[in-house]
């Protein structure tokens, strides 16, 4: 077995690991990057990228059916699902070079394609190589969580890791899980022509603002997606022609079954005990600097046991670089972390929801809104369903909830505002091009000041006095 010394050893070539590896290598550190599976991790190969490619296809299919309002005769699209499969994998292939082994080797990284395992507090074995590193970063990501449902593992259930290999459209797709992944895929497959039933033991899209989530769910139901809520899947039975799921609300049969019941950190068989690294059900135990119980080992992204977003892993990676390379004190925060569900309409959140804000700040919370129906661009495109809701404390936003067209893009401004501790006056002072949906954010900021200006008798008295003085 060969041995190798490194300043930084990164285990996992997803968003977080690649961020650390690229930054560290390009700034002169000796970096070893270890990945047993596909470069780019879950997001590129099985998650964000293929799912959004599928959603784009479904959007085009839906547009063909819904053009009547624009004066375009609706037609039923002919879906070639084998071509849809090729489109999805073509998108993956187009992005893959950015995350490729060759690119990272060109940056100066030593890339090892093997499973990594700790053999001591600072040594890792991968393939025929033992790496002794000053610092080690665990960026192993997560895998689909498979609930302990009787009979589930007896048949060919789908997860996000296998869903995008389908070359034939399911006749009737059953989905266990009504979170963001379950709802995104439910709407996409329904728009492509499949029957879809979502089975959710609790409330679908429960992490988001309930009013906003309800608008999404009602839209999906209007498009033909069926929901079974408040009842867990109790038993799965496989037949030659498909699958049946039994619940407390009844029995549901379909041709395919997708499990979208959350994700679990991928931490198995890493030899964590040998390195003195502790974990719990959520992931590795880390402090706010992302350091594990081994002072030489850090964790980023899903492995760190918090929010599970690609952009969070990238943020973790960029934050950690400052500590690993320069020894600077850093803390990873989530108060400004946005997320989005790419249904139609889209659903986005940053910071505190209204409920969370009221629990944290009580009567000090002011909620301001702007609606898509008041936006000229939304009206022109007939996308008037939706709202921007901002929670404000002491003149500064502490959270924003958006539902509507391009909500995932619009939420970015509020992440900046919360991160930089901007005031609503600064948001109100920006100029948005007309006509764009970005005016919705400015209008929400303006709504914070409207009652202070227009409903204030003192302001009116001052204005009248000034008018008498001015020439």
From TrEMBL:
Domain FAD/NAD(P)-binding: 7-317
Origin: domain of life: Bacteria
Cofactor needs: FAD
InterPro entries, A to Z: FAD/NAD-bd_sf, FAD/NAD-binding_dom, FAD/NAD-linked_Rdtase_dimer_sf, Pyr_nuc-diS_OxRdtase, Pyr_nucl-diS_OxRdtase_dimer, Pyr_OxRdtase_I_AS
Domain Pyridine nucleotide-disulphide oxidoreductase dimerisation: 337-443
UniProt entry keywords in alphabetical sequence: Disulfide bond, FAD, Flavoprotein, NADP, Oxidoreductase, Redox-active center
SUPFAM superfamilies: FAD/NAD(P)-binding domain (SSF51905), FAD/NAD-linked reductases, dimerisation (C-terminal) domain (SSF55424)
The keyword Flavoprotein belongs to this UniProt entry's keyword annotation: yes
Pfam families for the chain: Pyr_redox_2 (PF07992), Pyr_redox_dim (PF02852)
Family stated for the protein in its record: Belongs to the class-I pyridine nucleotide-disulfide oxidoreductase family.
Protein name: FAD-dependent oxidoreductase
Native source species: Tropicimonas omnivorans
